[in-house]
Amino acid sequence: MGGDETATSKAPRTERGKRTLRKLLDAAAAEFGERGYHEASISGITQRAGAALGTFYTYFDSKEQVFRALVDDMGHLTRQHIAERVPGNVDRLTAERLGLEAFIEFVREHKDLYRIVMEAQFVAEDAYLNYYKVFAAAYTRNLAQAAEKGEIRPGHEEERAWALIGMSVFLGMRYAVWSSDKPAKEVAAAAAELITFGLSPLARGGGGN
Amino acid sequence: MGGDETATSKAPRTERGKRTLRKLLDAAAAEFGERGYHEASISGITQRAGAALGTFYTYFDSKEQVFRALVDDMGHLTRQHIAERVPGNVDRLTAERLGLEAFIEFVREHKDLYRIVMEAQFVAEDAYLNYYKVFAAAYTRNLAQAAEKGEIRPGHEEERAWALIGMSVFLGMRYAVWSSDKPAKEVAAAAAELITFGLSPLARGGGGN
DNA sequence: CTGTAACTTGAATATTGACTCAGGTTTCGA
DNA sequence: TCGAAACCTGAGTCAATATTCAAGTTACAG
What we know:
2 copies of one chain form a homodimer.
Chain A: H1 15-39, H2 42-49, H3 53-59, H4 63-85, H5 92-109, H6 111-123, H7 125-148, H8 157-178, H9 184-197
The structure holds a DNA duplex.
Domain HTH tetR-type (chains A, B): 18-78
GO molecular function, one term (chains A, B): DNA binding
Pfam family, one (chains A, B): TetR_N
């Protein structure tokens, strides 16, 4: 559970090596993102990176291993990006809105990597599971804390966490991966309103009957 | 948009042929469901079906074609199952709860096929897109109608539709595909409560401040 | 019964692409 | 400057498997 690099005896030892590794990682992200895991080829990756085929195996043990590395990377990047955009001291409902907004923007800027995360479900299921379990656990905790403070109604934290993650993921897929037609702010606002008040006509100053 | 079989000159013409086709479809669902598209092999399918390798190509043009056939099939089955469990005359919020409940149950009974739908995103993106677009369109329409009747607050129907689908999908994944620990009813109830009232502590008779 | 269309069979073909390896080239500390 | 460690190269190996096909077998209309 630490933060090791995926342990290999393959870490680069010189500047040149570091540069090459980085080129390969970027190339792999592009190749996997564009063509999907199985269509992607190692030779495609090395061509993009401007390296020879064999060089790949200087830094990675297998095709699957790079893929996993990219999934883990994406987890860190996502959490980091969201954390940066969501101040620690706002209430939960505001945090939800800002978080979703940040998430959609992030996906838009990293479509390739995001596609990789989604495909991980079928290529490296445990990495995928882990990716979302970490999110779900954090989410569940945040909801429970917010409930204690009276910022939200308590109960069903786990189910809510998964439901909210599902919302984010699908809104991300629809409004970031497939099309960026609507501003992230707008989509996030609509979702936040749903999350906050639900669909009930009685909510808010809601009228009669 | 009709209900054609996936047009082939390959439809069976005798009873024996029909039986074989069915065996192959069932075997394909199992093989793809268990091993995923790329790990699955035609010979695996024909072995499960108790048929010779070449027989497969009597009924299908390619591996991808069976896969697509299964995705389409799943769309029909899902909609049908949900429609059966959700009476036409209940209000929207009740329909949401019953629909989600039916969906989770359905996924539990068809894990294989459901996995196939999810994987379609990477194998047959257009089939996948179509699967969800049909859902989203129907959903958007239902929400708009409910809004007109005053059953829910109006606005943002499309975003809401995708958000709600995302909820269902992730709850299905977590509580049906990955584990069936909690009863579908319970999960559906928790989600329905979220959808209806949101997280706001002010909703319902909800207390002060 | 009989002929033929429908169906079945599984060995053979063809392609693809992950991974290896033996032989260079570059880097960098001493 | 020198040499060993690090790094790079890309042709070749090898296994996997989607798809084809020519030779049977079965169903069934007439």
